[in-house]
Write a structure and sequence with these properties.
2 helices, alpha+beta, Metal Transport, Frataxin, Chain A
Length: 100
């Protein structure tokens, strides 16, 4: 059976939109969550800011974190998730641990 391959930009934007909605609900008044033109920004009152955006040339989601620095995540077809290019860290798991 042939499966339909979802284009990178569609997959990445859908993922960031979904993350934005989840984070708004989970963080509430603790942080300002904004998703605009493909960039997801999470800003806390203390000035900590997370930025997530797509990087089309590499087909990755890039994260800038005030805690762990810069990360690049590629789509893992078999695992259905965004995985770090450095190690096996999953984007959602990293965000969950850092934003708690």
């Amino acid at each position: 059976m042939h499966t339909l391959k979802i284009p990178f930009e569609t997959r990445a934007l859908n993922h960031l939109q979904s993350l934005s909605e989840q984070l708004e609900e989970q963080l509430g008044e603790k942080a300002d969550v904004d998703f605009h033109e493909g960039i997801l920004t999470i800003e806390f009152e203390n000035g900590d800011q997370y930025l997530l955006n797509l990087h089309k040339p590499t087909q990755q989601i890039w994260l800038s974190s005030p805690k762990s620095g810069a990360h690049h995540f590629s789509w893992n077809e078999t695992g259905d998730r965004w995985v770090s290019t450095r190690d096996t860290t999953v984007l959602k798991e990293l965000l969950k641990s850092e934003l708690q």
